[in-house]
Design goal:
It is extended and about 45 Å long. The protein has 102 residues and is of the alpha+beta class. It is 29% helix and 37% strand. It has a three-stranded antiparallel beta sheet with strand order 1-3-2, covered by helices on one side. Strand 2 and strand 3 form a beta hairpin. It has a domain of 52 residues: Alpha-Beta Plaits (2-Layer Sandwich), CATH 3.30.70.120.
Length: 102
């Protein structure tokens, strides 16, 4: 996958419609348990060419409904950046590495 670098002056003058048409890309947001080894998971995705880049966001507190009750937990978002045609390739690795919340 070719990478294109832009100077800040070029970015300001880009037409978002042209950019979207020329460079198809996706961002996939995934939530991992707070104690998961997110760095290792991200590295595996990049090594296996399932992602061009993975951003690891800081730990966060989440409040959610789970099995009929309101719960909370510490989680971490990861953002996978890649070409649009790879969008479906992450589903298997995430499902295989997912564990039920304790």
């Amino acid at each position: 996958m070719a990478s294109t670098m832009f100077r800040s002056s070029q970015v300001r003058s880009l037409d978002p419609r042209r950019l979207m048409a020329e460079f198809e890309f996706v961002l996939v947001l995934t939530t991992l348990p707070g104690d998961a080894d997110a760095a290792s998971f991200a590295r595996t995705l990049v090594e296996d060419r399932l992602a061009a880049c993975v951003n690891l966001l800081p730990l966060m507190e989440s409040v959610f409904r789970w099995e009929g009750r309101i719960d909370r937990d510490t989680e971490r978002h990861i953002v996978r950046n890649d070409a649009n045609h790879y969008a479906g390739t992450l589903r298997g690795p995430v499902s295989q590495n997912a564990a039920p919340a304790s």
